[in-house]
Amino acid sequence: MSWTEITVLVEKAKTGDREAYGELVTRFQSSVYAMALGRVRDPLEAQELAQDVFVHAMRKLPQLRDPRCFAGWLRRITARMAINRLTRRGPLFGTDPEMLDAVEARTRTAEEQFAVGEAVEQLKGALSELKPLDRQTLEAFYIRGRSLKQIAKEFAVPTGTVKRRLHVARQRLKEVLEEIDPTLAEKFAGVEDEVEAVGV
């Protein structure tokens, strides 16, 4: 699914199209879960957090001014809700089942799971071949879910510098991936659009 298609789905979902929102959940559930798991360190709690993120995002979606920012906006919601959950560590709040009744649950087949695992290993290998600064910048944004402002503060550089570093690091990563597996490199080709769309 291209970023243009995602933007169209966001526009539809903002008008109350639950089928469109369900498609967005299907597209982003793996990345939201991975980010949640990386923060709360518990699979079951990460699943609950991911569900809460999508319910919250559905309610707040009309407030999203630029549909192109959806991916970064969703990432920031996940980070914020993970921090709240870790701070609270009290009873977990449930959600209305009917809120997500239009969202179709999907589990990967054994073959898909293997393919994802293989792709992750290839990506890790490619990251390890990058210069430390390139690797640290990509990991901060994509793996640790830091915003551009947070990365700028962490590296003590202007936000514009972070954007440029992300652009350069992605290009270098793409070159390494093309040497390992050209088909894998194609999967990362749309990432540029996401970063350009993410607000600071």
UniProtKB/TrEMBL annotation:
Keywords: DNA-binding, Sigma factor, Transcription, Transcription regulation. One of its GO terms (biological process) is DNA-templated transcription initiation. It holds the Pfam family Sigma70_r4. InterPro entries: RNA_pol_sigma-70-like (IPR039425), RNA_pol_sigma-70_dom (IPR014284), RNA_pol_sigma70_r2 (IPR007627), RNA_pol_sigma70_r4 (IPR007630), RNA_pol_sigma_r2 (IPR013325), RNA_pol_sigma_r3/r4-like (IPR013324), WH-like_DNA-bd_sf (IPR036388). Residues 24-89, 126-175 form the RNA polymerase sigma-70 region domain. One of its GO terms (molecular function) is DNA binding. The keyword DNA-binding applies. Belongs to the sigma-70 factor family. ECF subfamily. This is RNA polymerase subunit sigma.
